[in-house]
């Protein structure tokens, strides 16, 4: 089996940037799109932001799988490889998850005035939250990523054994994911099913399939439009139309439910979310390569940097958003000012997280413990024996950067 290192794909950092922008839109608009601004004349737009950008987390899951299989599929599964794989995840994913869970759970208790009232109950509650990914609303994503890491060596070995398994990867992922959805709806009734990796298995399998078949997919991503074959042009146009159609239907479904109380069977919400976000994962991949190829270098550089910081931004942005929301200043929810306030939260969460993370990676040697591996471009500078500047080694990144 060929163990040669894969070509680096800088476009993936742009993909991460697009995905984290999606996450920030959803989180910034979550309160407004719920019940807070139902009577606002701008509610359709607030709901649109909240639903259209729900591609963020599923796209990260797709990309995480793509990066892992892209880097590891051509390498033999040995004890050394598996040991190194888990050692990196333990240090640069699991440790930040643990510290973030402690911090957010403790802060929530403090804000609610419960920090020192019932220590035993608080500890029990924390342990339950830690092992369900619910210490804070956004940490479920890291929790399900950890579940996928446990599954990865088995899937890698299975897909290496036969091309037949590769061919059926996506249908198998969809079948297992939807089998669980139906089982849970009619029998299990697990409320927090979004914290279970099987709820996202189709995205994981789609990422694996495209990574394994990447040489066949590459011309579609790398070539400009004029050089694409007629079939690839038709495929691209069909993807765009289906993506926009699924996104619009998904937005409309939730608008009718939230604004008018016209709720449908839960399977419709599952179906349109699944269709919208799976198509989004492919669309973002195409857009990332197109942006890298056609957009001015300054914008590419900014998106690349955001992509490098995306995992750390993901971890800390809810804290800034929570602080920002405490300074609402009695803005009427039916005013345009309230819409601007929502976007202000997005900008504060993005800009504030960017500044904090950039500073931490540049100046704090231990920052990897709290916010993950340090991008090579931001590694702290130390002096070598000749007194010249040199970067510290990256804190265990994959070849394509942070895989979460």
- Number of helical regions: 16
Distance between the termini: 26 Å
Quote the beta fraction: under 5%
Strand order across the biggest sheet? 1-2
Instruction: Compute the average pLDDT.
Output: 91
| Strand tally | 2
Largest sheet: 2 strands, antiparallel
**C-alpha-based Rg, rounded:** 22 Å
Reading the helices and strands in chain order gives: HHHHHHHHHHHHHHHHEE
**Percent range of helical residues:** over 70%
Low-confidence stretches: 382-399
Overall shape: globular
Helical/strand content category: mainly alpha
Oligomerization category of the chains in this entry = single chain
Question: Could you outline the blueprint of secondary structure elements for this entry?
Answer:
Elements: H1 11-28, H2 30-36, H3 43-52, H4 56-72, H5 79-111, H6 119-130, H7 140-161, H8 163-167, H9 169-188, H10 201-212, H11 214-222, H12 230-260, H13 266-294, H14 297-325, H15 336-363, H16 367-371, E1 381-383, E2 389-391
Antiparallel strand pairs: 1-2
Helix pairs in contact: 1-3, 1-4, 1-13, 1-14, 1-15, 2-3, 3-12, 4-7, 4-10, 4-13, 5-6, 5-7, 9-10, 12-13, 14-15
Give an overview of the whole structure.
By secondary structure, the chain is mainly alpha-helical. It has helices spanning 11-28, 30-36, 43-52, 56-72, 79-111, 119-130, 140-161, 163-167, 169-188, 201-212, 214-222, 230-260, 266-294, 297-325, 336-363, 367-371; strands at 381-383, 389-391. It has a domain at 1-54 and 236-260 and 280-404. A two-stranded antiparallel ribbon has the order 1-2. Helix 1 (11-28) crosses helix 15. The longest helix is centred in the first third of the chain and has 33 residues, at 79-111. It is globular.
